[in-house]
Structure formats: structure tokens, C-alpha cells
Design a protein that fits this description.
single chain, 232 residues, alpha/beta, Rossmann fold, seven-stranded mixed beta sheet, 8 helices, 7 strands, 37% helix, binds S-adenosylmethionine, SAM-dependent_MTases_sf
Length: 232
């Protein structure tokens, strides 16, 4: 999502607050406002993930489940998708069931696998997951820097807002993700220039991660990167 363009965070100076304009965007696109639907950032993460994901793969914050579906249908990885939003879990689970049914019957255009599908669990970040169980962890986090006065406290805010710094979900994620990674595992994190790209890299480096950029795209008001982190 080129979210900053839509929220006015790029300094448009309008009276409209971030919360209002994100909602307006959702309604202009005919999007429902309770579950984040695939956008530019989702596509970028999926593109990088299809090239990298292997073994046991976790997508944190799966939203509609679209990224998890791409990985489950286009790679040999076994995929678990999680979200804190129960509506997102429901939608992702429906998507997973549809994919599984299509792949078992051979009717799915999406996949050549006959066992494509993925598990969906409700979780707050990485809390319920055991140590060293995932080979790949994916996350397109809520990253919009949000003025506390403009927060509106619903599931779309949970999907979009990274708090005042934009990094209020990214930092606890980076604090804990090393714990769930199997030896040699990788993290693919979507990072926006709005969030403070260098700040995210420095935070990860201080927690023992080295990085490389898998894909990067520039939009009029932000640059989105998918950064691959590996433990040193
Ligand atoms: C930007 S959306 C990305 C959705 C989807 N992965 C995609 O790329 O289209 C961020 C997602 O993270 C979820 N989320 C926010 N806070 C979370 C948390 N503490 N634990 C798990 N998921 C969370 C939101 O509900 C939302 O679905």
C-alpha cells in the first residue's frame, strides 16, 4: 500500500487526518474496512517470498491470506499464516480451504501442487510459536507513522498503524523473531521509507541480523523494500 500518499503523511497539509483518509481510500476502492486487502506491498512481499520461502514458513499478519496463498501454491514450503484480527483469520482460512479443495481436485489455476493449502492461527506476533521451528518468516507489518490523536481504534488501524514511530510492531517482532527461526532461517520483512529504513536496519543489526535487499520499488511518496534478514 502506498499508504502515505493516501493518508497525507507526506505533508499534503490538508485538514484530513490519517485515519480519515485511510478509511476514505478503503471506501473508494470498495474495500471492506476490517481486513487489509492485497496491495502493492503485499505483491512485493509475495514476489520476494516466492523466491525465498522454503521449509516451514510463517506469515505473520496475514490479513486476507493472499500472500500465504501465493507461497503455498507456488513453492514447496509448508505454510502457517497468523493474524491478531479474528476477521482476518476467518478470511484467510476460507482462502486456504478454497486453495486446498482446488489443488486436491486439480481444478486450481493457481497451483501445480496437489497438497497446496495453509494453516491459519490467531496470534499476537510470535507469542504462541515454539523456538526454532520456522525456516522462513514473512511479515508485511503495520507501518504507517500515526499521530496518537488521529488513531481510531479499529481493525484497519491495527493493519495500518505503526504507532508514532511507524516501528511499534516492527521492533517487538525483531526482538523475538530470532527465537522462532530454525538455524539458517531467514526473515523477509517489508520496510517502507516512511518507517525509517535505516532505523529498522540498525535495530535488526543490533539484534544480530545481517541483511540483503530482495526487491525494492519506488512509488511517488515512498520506497518499499523487502529485506531478507539472516542471523549472524
Ligand atoms: C499491512 S497488513 C498486511 C496484510 C497482508 N499480509 C498483506 O500483505 O496483504 C498488516 C497485518 O498485520 C496484522 N497485525 C497487526 N498487529 C498484529 C499483531 N500484533 N500480531 C499479528 N498480526 C498483527 C493486521 O491485522 C494486518 O492483517
Amino acid at each position: 500500500m502506498t499508504r502515505e500518499r493516501d493518508t497525507g503523511a507526506g505533508g499534503s497539509g490538508g485538514a484530513e487526518g490519517p485515519a480519515d483518509s485511510a478509511r476514505d481510500l478503503a471506501s473508494r476502492r470498495g474495500m471492506e474496512t476490517s481486513v487489509y486487502q492485497p496491495a502493492e506491498d503485499s505483491e512485493l512481499l509475495a514476489r520476494a517470498a516466492v523466491g525465498h520461502a522454503e521449509g516451514r514458513t510463517l506469515e505473520v499478519g496475514t490479513g486476507s491470506g493472499w500472500v500465504a496463498e501465493q507461497v503455498a501454491s507456488e513453492t514447496a514450503a509448508s505454510v502457517v499464516a497468523s493474524d491478531v484480527n479474528p476477521g482476518a483469520c476467518r478470511q484467510a482460512r476460507e482462502r486456504a480451504e478454497r486453495l486446498r479443495a482446488e489443488s486436491e481436485s486439480g481444478t486450481g489455476a493457481e497451483s501445480e501442487r496437489t497438497d497446496a493449502g495453509f494453516e491459519v492461527v490467531r496470534a499476537d506476533l510470535l507469542a504462541p510459536f515454539a523456538d526454532e521451528v520456522f525456516d522462513t518468516v514473512l511479515f508485511n507489518p503495520p507501518y504507517l507513522p500515526t499521530d496518537p490523536d488521529n488513531e481510531w481504534d479499529d481493525w484497519m488501524e491495527t493493519a495500518l498503524s505503526g504507532g508514532e514511530s511507524g516501528r511499534e510492531l516492527i521492533e517487538p517482532f525483531l526482538d523475538d523473531v530470532g527465537r522462532v527461526l530454525a538455524p539458517g532461517g531467514e526473515v523477509l520483512l517489508l520496510v517502507s521509507s516512511l518507517t525509517g529504513y535505516e532505523d529498522v536496519l540498525a535495530y535488526a543489526e543490533a539484534r544480530g541480523f545481517s541483511h540483503e535487499v530482495a526487491v525494492q520499488e519506488s512509488y511517488p511518496f515512498e520506497t518499499l523494500s523487502v529485506v531478507v534478514f539472516s542471523q549472524n
